[in-house]
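Retro notes (design track)

What went well: tokenization of the new backbones is finally stable.
What didn't: we kept losing track of which sequence belonged to which structure.
Fix going forward: every design gets posted as structure first, then sequence, in one message. First example under the new rule, 106 residues:
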């Protein structure tokens, strides 16, 4: 075990390895400079569809997610007694939701 440590130390101290270390570090510095030059000339342009999607996303984030007109119509219909409950539609949607949950969670 001590022999391995000595041979590793001896290999690292050889002059040819020292010059190799210098060339590796100078290559790394050159790569950093090249990256800096490249980053100054990069450009990004969005397509029209990407811009539309960005606007739609911003609009959706700003909205509260509720249709206030529909809520008011339903509130009025309940208040004046004209709201009709469609029991079959509600039951069908409950069954569909249960089927979907059953397929997900098995």
């Amino acid at each position: 075990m001590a022999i391995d440590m000595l041979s590793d130390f001896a290999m690292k101290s050889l002059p040819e390895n020292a010059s190799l270390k210098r060339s590796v570090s100078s290559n790394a510095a050159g790569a950093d400079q090249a990256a800096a030059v490249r980053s100054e000339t990069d450009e990004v342009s969005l397509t029209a569809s990407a811009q539309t999607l960005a606007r739609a996303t911003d609009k959706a984030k700003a909205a509260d997610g509720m249709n206030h007109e529909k809520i008011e119509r339903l509130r009025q219909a309940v208040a004046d007694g004209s709201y009709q409950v469609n029991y079959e539609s509600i039951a069908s949607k409950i069954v569909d939701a249960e089927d979907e949950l059953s397929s997900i969670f098995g």
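Added context from the reviewer: The radius of gyration is 35 Å.
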